[in-house]
């Protein structure tokens, strides 16, 4: 769960179920099989979310054609019964059920089914009344910060903290679908961390999976990424989503990075010891040497394997006299010198 040492990965189903419960169930299956920690949907009533004539975003026009946001969103609602079914199904599949609420009624719905934490979308970062309403529930809140400046983020944080809730994680986000690499600005995630001393993560809308993986390498504690059953499906978000195999690959890449972080101690690992024996060098005779010869770089050299005196101790034998004959490539050892 959030707060564990490992990255909390949210597979964002969003509205990619297209209003079909069976599709939503398949999305849960994909998320669970990918190894993600949570699968997240969106909870709203179109009548509470948009006006009847609210225009679509440009990307929505490209993916769903003409018409209003209301007409598009009305087809993508999940019922109360759908929420109960999906939450129970997530429990069966051992994955956390999450959903982003967009209005007060949606919060009440999610609270009635005992959702474990709340994710606030970027569009509601400045919806202070909604943020306060959720904050008073005293559950963990993950806040996306797309389209925002630091002042707006600060105001949202203050509203939450003033409500007595300090369980906040901030997600850097660029609210463009798809997001170009030039607009990602991953360093802003670090800015959020330093400015507010809170856990940070990244909500991604780029094509592909490289940027979420990079965000983890930079310290993200939460990753959110859209996924779909098929990018060719009709709907606003399918084309910027990962397909099942891509989602699985992203999760695996993130888990590999987590293992690679290690403990931070610089040392020769257990698995390096055999390599060290054959890769490092020892001090050896450059040619056949006689008793009484003075050792120097003229007559000694450094060759593999590491089974004699390390070159790091060269100064201890430099200019020393041999007390025995030595053949070429023989180890120079301390018992051979005065």
UniProtKB/TrEMBL annotation:
InterPro entries in alphabetical order: AFP_Neu5c_C_sf, Aldolase_TIM, NeuB/NeuA, PseI-like, PseI/NeuA/B-like_N, SAF, SAF_AFP_Neu5Ac, SAF_PseI/NeuA/NeuB
The keyword Nuclease is annotated on this UniProt entry: no
EC number(s) per entry: 2.5.1.56
Listed GO biological process terms: carbohydrate biosynthetic process
Enzyme class: transferase
GO function term, MF aspect, one: N-acetylneuraminate synthase activity
Protein keywords: Transferase
SUPFAM superfamilies named in the record: AFP III-like domain, Aldolase
AFP-like domain sequence ranges: 282-338
Database matches in CDD domains: SAF_NeuB_like (cd11615)
Entry-linked Pfam families: NeuB, SAF
NCBIfam families xref list: NeuB_NnaB
Descriptive protein name: N-acetylneuraminate synthase
Organism field: Clostridium paridis
């Amino acid at each position: 769960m959030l707060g564990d040492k490992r990255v909390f990965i949210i597979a964002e189903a969003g509205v990619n179920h297209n209003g079909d419960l069976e599709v939503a169930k398949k999305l849960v299956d994909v998320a669970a099989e990918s190894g993600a920690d949570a699968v997240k949907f969106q909870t709203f009533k179109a009548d509470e979310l948009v006006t009847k004539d609210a225009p679509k975003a440009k990307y929505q026009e490209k993916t769903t054609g003409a018409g209003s946001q209301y007409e598009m969103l009305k087809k993508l609602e999940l019922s109360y019964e759908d929420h109960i079914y999906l939450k129970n199904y997530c429990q069966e599949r051992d994955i956390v059920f999450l959903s982003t609420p967009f209005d007060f009624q949606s919060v009440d719905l999610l609270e009635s089914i005992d959702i474990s934490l709340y994710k606030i979308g970027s569009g509601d970062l400045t919806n202070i009344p909604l943020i306060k309403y959720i904050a008073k529930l005293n559950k963990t809140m993950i806040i996306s910060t797309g389209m925002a400046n630091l002042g707006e983020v600060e105001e949202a944080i203050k509203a939450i903290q003033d409500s007595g809730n300090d369980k906040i994680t901030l997600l850097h986000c660029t609210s463009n679908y798809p997001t170009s690499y030039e607009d990602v600005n991953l360093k802003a995630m670090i800015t959020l961390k330093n400015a507010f001393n809170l856990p940070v993560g990244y909500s991604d809308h780029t094509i592909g999976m490289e940027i979420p993986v990079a965000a983890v390498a930079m310290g993200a504690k939460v990753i959110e990424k859209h996924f779909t059953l098929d990018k060719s499906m009709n709907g606003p978000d399918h084309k910027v989503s990962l397909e099942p195999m891509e989602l699985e690959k992203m999760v695996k890449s993130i888990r590999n990075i987590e293992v690679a972080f290690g403990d931070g101690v610089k040392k020769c690992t257990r698995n390096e010891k055999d390599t060290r024996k054959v890769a490092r060098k020892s001090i050896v005779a450059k040619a056949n040497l006689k008793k009484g010869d003075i050792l120097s770089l003229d007559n000694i050299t450094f060759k593999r394997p590491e089974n004699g005196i390390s070159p790091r101790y060269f100064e201890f034998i430099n200019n020393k006299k041999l007390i025995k004959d030595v053949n070429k490539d023989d180890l120079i050892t301390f018992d051979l010198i005065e």
